[in-house]
Structure formats: structure tokens, C-alpha cells
Amino acid sequence: MYETPVKDLSPEEAKRLYEEGVPFFDVREVEEYAQARIPGARLLPLSEFMARFGEIPKDRPVVLYCRTGNRSWQAAAWLTAQGYQVYNLDGGIVRWYRAGLPVDTTPVEVGYAATPYREVGPLEAKDLLESALVVDVREAWEYPEGHVPGAINIPLSTLPQRLAELPRERPILLVCNSGNRSGVAADFLVEQGFDGDKVYNLEGGTYAWAASGLPLER
């Protein structure tokens, strides 16, 4: 688990900051944001987070949210460890809406950013196992529950401190439960100078891997 405490806010507490003009960032993906969002919130998808977190001001508090608070908690924990003043909306936009707070459902057009790394499905990932270093970026307690064979565990929260453990000349396959955290890790590696053609993200993560009938180590 993350050692850095995350400051969770109830919808009512978040509303007070919202009314004070504190910036809100939506870390969901493009299609989710397009359907409904907290009015005025800025889109910063978790899949692009490591490449774009510099857009978040460090000299003032900010609030992060997602659908239910899980993805934004991951982002908030990482930012808190970097010295940001950040809050997580507990329960996400779902709890915000259920509390009777405003949600903007006006249709918006938002574009998809091309990923600087390579996305692969389970069968393509299987073919990479002989040549690639497989890195599971989930937390240490998740790793024993089942991981891609041969994967090492470097939690996303520790990745900046453990870059030296990763080879730059060898392909790297990044894995998590669903592909979100590993996508963040892939973005970060490319930003740190790793060759995007050698950085792979397993789409759908271990869920998709297992659903394809491929084995997990425990």
C-alpha cells in the first residue's frame, strides 16, 4: 500500500472547496468525461497522468476525482508523495451526484491523445515474454494474488525511485489489474527517456490475461 496518507473529502467538504475556486481535475478517460463531469473540472486522464501531471498547480490545493474515487486515489497518493497539496473526492462523481451536487451533462467533443508507448493484448503480450522484462506495477499485496509469469513487482508509487532497476535496451511489458496504472507507468517511462517502441502496456491487465485462458503465477 502507499505509505503517504491521502486526504479524502466527502462531497460536502469538496463542495466548500469548489465554491472557493479550488481547481478540480477529472482523471477518468475521455469518453467518461464527455458524458458527465463536475462543472468546470479539467480533464487529465489517468492514462496520460505521468506525462501531464505538470499541468497541476503545486502552489495551491487541488481536488481529484474519478467515477468512484479509486483511480483518483491512486493519482492523489502519487502527487501527495511529490509534495502537492491534493485532495481525493471520496466516492467520486457518483457520490457527488447522489449528494445532489451539480453535474454538467452538456455534450462536449474531446480528442484522444496518441499514446507514446505500445498497447498490446494478452496474446501479443504472451509472445513478448521471452524477450521482455515484465513489470507488475500493482501494490505489493496485490502481486501474490496472481501475476503474469516471470513478472517482477515494482509498485507504481515506487517507480520514480526504482528506475535504475529497469533496462533501457530491452523491451518492458507493464502490467496491472486493468491496464490503467500500467498505462500511467508506460507514459512515465517514455517521459524519462525510455524508447516508446520498447515500452508495452498490457491492455486489460491481468483480468484480460486470465480471461484469455493464460496462466497466472501465485
TrEMBL record:
<dbReference type="Pfam" id="PF00581">
    <property type="entry name" value="Rhodanese"/>
</dbReference>
<dbReference type="GO" id="GO:0004792">
    <property type="term" value="F:thiosulfate-cyanide sulfurtransferase activity"/>
</dbReference>
<dbReference type="InterPro" id="IPR050229">
    <property type="entry name" value="GlpE_sulfurtransferase"/>
</dbReference>
<dbReference type="InterPro" id="IPR001763">
    <property type="entry name" value="Rhodanese-like_dom"/>
</dbReference>
<dbReference type="InterPro" id="IPR036873">
    <property type="entry name" value="Rhodanese-like_dom_sf"/>
</dbReference>
<feature type="domain" description="Rhodanese">
    <location>
        <begin position="18"/>
        <end position="105"/>
    </location>
</feature>
<dbReference type="InterPro" id="IPR001307">
    <property type="entry name" value="Thiosulphate_STrfase_CS"/>
</dbReference>
<feature type="domain" description="Rhodanese">
    <location>
        <begin position="128"/>
        <end position="218"/>
    </location>
</feature>
<protein>
    <submittedName>
        <fullName>Rhodanese-like domain-containing protein</fullName>
    </submittedName>
</protein>
